Predict the 3D structure of the following.
Amino acid sequence: MIRKSKSDIRNFLLHLLLSLLGAIMIYPLVWMFFASFKTNDEIFNSVRLLPAEFNLDGYILGWKGNRQIGFNTFLINTLKLVVPTVIFTVISSPLVAYGFARFRFPFHRILFALMLSTLMLPNTVLVVPRYIMFRNFGWLDTYLPFTIPALLATAPFYTFMIYQFLRSLPVELDESAKIDGLGPIGILLRILLPLLKPAIFSAAVFQLIWTWNDFFNVLIFVPSVNKYTLSLGLRMMMDIEAASAWNQIMAMSVVAILPCALFFFFTQRYFVEGIATTGLKG
Amino acid sequence: MKIKPRIREINKYQYWGYLFITPWIIGFIVLQLYPLLASLNYSFTDFNMLNDPRYIGFQNYIRMFTKDVNFSQSVKVTLIRVLFAVPMKIIFALMVAMLLNIRLKGMNFYRTIFYLPSIFGGSVAISVLWKFLFMREGLINRLLSVFSIKPVDWLGNPDIALFTVSLVTIWEFGSSMVLFLAGLKQIPRELYEAAKIDGASLLKQFYYVTLPLLTPIVFFNLVMQTINAFQEFTTPFVITSGGPAKSTYLYAMLIYENGFKFLKMGYASALSWLMFIAIIIITALVFKSSPYWVYYGDGGST
Amino acid sequence: MKKMISILLTIMLLLVAFSACTGSTPAGNDAPDPTKAASAPEKPEDITLRVSWWGPEARHQATLEVMEMYEKLNSHVKLQGEYGDWNGWYDKLLTQIAGGTAPDVMQVNDRWYYDFTSNKQVVIDMNTLTDYVDLTTFDKNFLDTYCSYNGILLGVPLGVNGTGMLYNKDFFAKYGIPEDTVWTWDNLMEIGIEVHKKDSNAYLLCSDPNEMMTLMRAYIKQKIGTQLIADDYTFNLSKELLTEVFQYTVDLLDNGVAEPFESAVLYTNVSNENPKWIRGELGMQFKYLSLLPRYLESDLNLGIVTLPVMEGLKDTGVLISTGNLMSVYSGTKHVEECAKFINWFVNDKDAILTLGEVRGIPATDFARKTLSEAGKGNTFVSDAVNIALENASNIVENGLSQNQEFEALLIDTFEQVGFKRLTPEEAANFLYDTMIEKLEELKSQN
């Protein structure tokens, strides 16, 4: 009995601590969500979380805004950028990871070290020469600077991530499959890929969210307003009308991050556990 | 007799590896190696996109260290930021992950909450939010005024702005936390049971069981977060434009401004190369040190 | 697990399909439709012109409206607007120019003369396009003085811009400051101190660091009466003068005449968003007059006066410029169509009436008359420009003094002083030495 109540107190304290911490963490986001329904005056003059009344002006005016290029264009542009990039990543990364994890070909060590070292190769370092190169290719103002690198698995993070998961899968699996007469492609498709699903899924989620939110690269490679993604559209809006329309800016910020948040809520259980279970089962 | 053919069979398959890594090899050569070398080449020129480049030797590099005050300033603030934000983030992520690893009802819910901020990364929307929270008339100051604390210029004061901007990164500790959580779940319960039987305290359990088994994840986080921290751009660019008084003028902004504002592609390339070398040295040090503190279950061979 | 993946795949496929469908409609590029061109040979080929500008919301709306009008008149031309805020616009345009993706028609700032002509010629000399653009409506002297550089006419001026001090009438009334005060640098300090004594929340000057620096340029010009940097790369500012300027700035800040940088810096270039200005706690601020419309949107009761002066001044320092020019990008494929559009944009009556004063007071007599006859001229802005013209500086800033790197250095140093990172002497020494070095470098390059 004493033991039980002791652990009850411990659990209660733990819940209290976590709730408090969680509330602090999430308060800004919740606040932003509700602020998008407030009037501009209310945003500035009230500390209250909930709006006095739900006002959709921020969304209606912000979305349309009497402009030739509005947020519908930015949203479509974002999709045009994100969807192919994610699909290409999901195709290319497992292939390369498999190549590195399961084969010991000549120069394997060197090539793998190279790939690992590109993990340390910051995007910022490459942005100037890449800009010049993409300009020569005529790729500026297109989304090719995002999709082609994804197709060629040049973001080593995803490859490395899947590689790590692959390494945690016992080699005996492959060997027994080999004895059953499966070739390398068969082993990948039939044996490893099903086990790798959570890792691949995680890679897709990461790529989706990072590309969706990317600002730096879009800023540099996509200079024209009609090709802007949500990030750049939002920044443009912030510069133009910060004083007059914080409610519109808050509303469009919500538009920019809500899809990410929803996507996360629908997949997070699977995604987070994906990471956990792959590691565990390996 | 029986072993020989099996080895040959395995060997036969080894060359298949090339096929699988071909996309990466092409991508590596065209999109990484070539730009990197081209940038080294540009770094010895005065290339500005509009004129034909001229070779000017090491002048760009000399200029950085002798003439460009923005360079020393941005190196300083970038290092401060890295040294402050990376350890804070990792420690915070590990602590929260430890709490969440306790089997308790509702843990999934908390995990979702803690993870949520980090999915937004360097998003502009979060920068917008941050600006609104921390500006003089912002929410934080208004909350403080409830406790009659005077308004603080979170973003206007050069001594505080870097800290305020770095808070975004720490707030987004979720992905590190998830990796730690995954690592914690991998640790077999038997190890703790055994430790308990040996009479180890919670602290000792953490030090002798948890921490060693988590070192690969600490390692991974340390490397990735350091590199990310060096590249931080969006938040300071959108919120403070590197100000006030260049106190949030991070290295990525220096490269951006020289390259895309003054079109000094040659100089920007030199700056990029310096960053590259610095990151190589730092990560090499982390890698070199890893055998001393990183524990790999399968013996650590690659 | 399988279910999740199939759901995800479906979502992705839907997204692709969605983006592919919607993507094909607005893909308006220069590529003419071959079938259309073949079926109607006498019709001019269909083209799309990209037109870019920066500015406040009112300017966007008026410009887009005018563009639609032009499209109706010229059915073969499709105009695509690219616009945003002044902040960062220069970087963006430069990136586009460097990348060869600049818009066909672009609004440029006269302060970019140097950067746009010292390297490759970025815009087409408007003098060569007189077949399509009627330049006779403009004052020739104005074109030569304010819009040309080395004989190259960079574009068609869109307005006359000046500088002045914008003040809040209610603020002046509250603190008993007569509106007809002739401002000097001395009484600015004295009155400012008194204001701050009466209310520690109130400051006479709104201190947007960028604009304060520009105000200080006027101080400098009043002292020296020449270019800041002469055409022969001589730096005309002495260390003593720079120290004096920085010391004056520090005094403004220390005495509470100017709002502290700490609270003002977030509103650099957008002081209309500064909550203290909106609440009427700031009395006055330096302004480029082309920015007035966005200040007039507020409920504040505003007035305008000329810049402070000093005894024995050699020049008023009141900068007059065209501010914005409409230029044709040298890389365009449709020079003629661009020129025609620009001509219509500045000379057509309907266009003039629709655009009003969104880019300041129009630069042609015809446009000004058209607006005032229609009762559309904003008297506030035109009065402000007239005040500026009456006090106009005799110095038309040369390209070197407008060099972006010099401007950046000035502002950075100025901020360092304002934030007390450097003393006025240190800042003056640093700025002077760096400039001498930079100018030598530039001289050796050209």
